Automatic annotation (TrEMBL):
Tagged with keyword Membrane: yes
Protein name: Solute carrier family 25 member 16
GO cellular component: mitochondrial inner membrane
Membrane topology: Multi-pass membrane protein
Solcar repeats: 30-116, 204-294
Organism: Anas zonorhyncha
Length: 298
């Protein structure tokens, strides 16, 4: 066919045809941006899916006086009665501001650097975690600065965040990547299918992606959960009556263990976390894999 003919395209010629001059460069130029967007969308979809469970988890971890005598499902029912159904989504706006760059950089870094760039998004992950006891982001900034020691108040819980992020993100991505590799290697026809944007690339079927993501989230949360409890209590220190006992990571870990033990302290709310993290991570990994195909990242 004539090279000037619009029908003479690489798509019409098949997956093995050469791209026009400059086409590959154009795709590479926007690869980082597309990968960033894919990760951000995946993170936001995952967190929105489980926002009510996140709210209940934080209330249980902080031993909120309105709900501390209740269990997981009792709290889920009590919050709408006391605060309305929007109470289950309280702070979700700030959560999206935090999660989009967190998820975007996390997934992009995993694909490109295998976690070398992970600490870049620590600030985003930590900074926008202050939302439980405030009316909004601006109000939270003012209250934290005036009542929690100026700028140092914004960094309460930084150490357990740093320490806890490595096992959580590491085990999550490692488990998902391992399950994906084993599944495609051992049962490609049963578990895999050609990618929508590149038939030469094999990807997991959607329901298999959901399963692998859920397993990865459950394992990662089990390992890092005590540090998550520690981080939350340190961040909410100003609104808790025992805030003077939770000034450092080690001090907080000891205090929670001595006062409440392992099951009711360090792992309080873990059953809820299993319910929360399995769909959250399942949606995150599955959305990211679909976004990679939609944005031609394969």
């Amino acid at each position: 066919p004539c090279p000037r003919c619009p029908m003479a395209s690489p798509a019409a010629a098949g997956p093995g045809a050469a791209l026009p001059a400059g086409a590959g460069t154009a795709r590479r130029d926007f690869y980082w941006l597309r990968s960033f967007i894919a990760g951000g969308v995946a993170g936001c979809c995952a967190k929105t899916t489980t926002a009510p469970l996140d709210r209940v988890k934080i209330l249980l971890q902080a031993h909120n006086h309105h709900y501390k005598h209740l269990g997981v499902f009792s709290t889920l029912c009590a919050v709408p009665k006391k605060e309305g159904y929007l109470g289950l989504y309280k702070g979700n706006g700030a959560m999206m501001i935090r999660i989009f760059p967190y998820g975007a950089i996390q997934f992009m870094a995993f694909d490109q650097y295998k976690k070398v760039a992970e600490f870049i998004f620590l600030f985003f992950y930590f900074f926008f975690s202050f939302y439980l006891a405030y009316m909004g982001i601006i109000h939270a900034f003012k209250m934290i600065y005036t009542k929690e020691g100026g700028f140092s108040g914004f960094y309460r819980g930084l150490m357990p965040t740093v320490v806890g992020m490595a096992p959580y993100a590491g085990f999550s991505f490692f488990t998902f990547g391992t399950l994906k590799s084993i599944g495609l290697a051992q049962a490609p026809n049963l578990l895999g299918r050609p990618s929508l944007d590149n038939p030469d690339v094999l990807v997991l079927k959607t329901h298999v992606n959901l399963l692998c993501g859920g397993i990865a989230g459950a394992i990662a949360q089990t390992i890092s959960y005590p540090l998550d409890v520690t981080r939350r209590r340190m961040q909410l220190g100003a609104v808790l009556p025992d805030s003077d006992k939770c000034l450092t990571m080690v001090q907080t870990l000891k205090y929670v263990y001595q006062q409440h033990g392992i099951r009711r302290g360090l792992y309080r709310g873990l059953s809820l976390n299993y319910i929360r993290c399995i769909p959250s991570q399942a949606v995150a990994f599955t959305t990211y894999e679909l976004m990679k195909q939609f944005l031609h990242l394969n």
